[in-house]
């Protein structure tokens, strides 16, 4: 059974809880099984890496860690502020996501 989430890859989201609360960024990846998403520039962690072809020096690298999707809200396309997401049928009969605050369709 597939689960429908309120966020998708490419959405602009705002973090509503946790250490990164208030930060926003673009969703890079959604892990459906673990119900987590990786957001660009948010929830950065330091990771120690060994020297390799890409990074010959090695050392400590900052990278994004996954955040549970319940802590994320999609930004309204009109105002850019966080909003809840609803689903409805559009003129062609296709189900689309829309912002509850403005009623605007989320692309």
SSE series = EEEEEEEEEE
Q: What's the CATH topology name?
A: SH3 type barrels
**Count of strand segments:** 10
Structural class: mainly beta
Radius of gyration: 17 Å
Please give the largest β-sheet.
6 strands, antiparallel
What is the multimeric organization of the chains shown? Answer: single chain
Shape: elongated
Helix content: under 10%
Strand content: 35-45%
Mean pLDDT over the full residue set: 92
Count every helix, treating DSSP H or I runs of 4 or more residues as helices.
Answer: 0
Looking at the overall shape, the CATH architecture is Roll
**Contiguous runs where pLDDT drops below 50 for at least 5 residues:** none
**CATH class (first level) name:** Mainly Beta
Strand order within the widest beta sheet:
6-3-2-1-7-8
Number of domains: 1
Ends distance: 24 Å
Structure, briefly:
The protein is mainly β. Helix content is 0%, strand content 43%.
Q: Could you walk me through the main structural features you see in this protein, from its secondary elements to its overall organization?
A:
With 107 residues, the protein is mostly beta strands. The protein has one domain: SH3 type barrels. The protein has no helices and 10 strands. It has strands spanning 12-15, 24-31, 36-39, 44-49, 59-64, 67-68, 72-75, 82-83, 85-89, 95-99. The strands form 3 sheets. The chain has a 6-stranded antiparallel beta sheet, with no helix packed on it. A two-stranded antiparallel sheet has the order 4-5. A hairpin with an 8-residue loop joins strand 1 (12-15) and strand 2 (24-31). The model has no long low-confidence stretch (mean pLDDT 92).
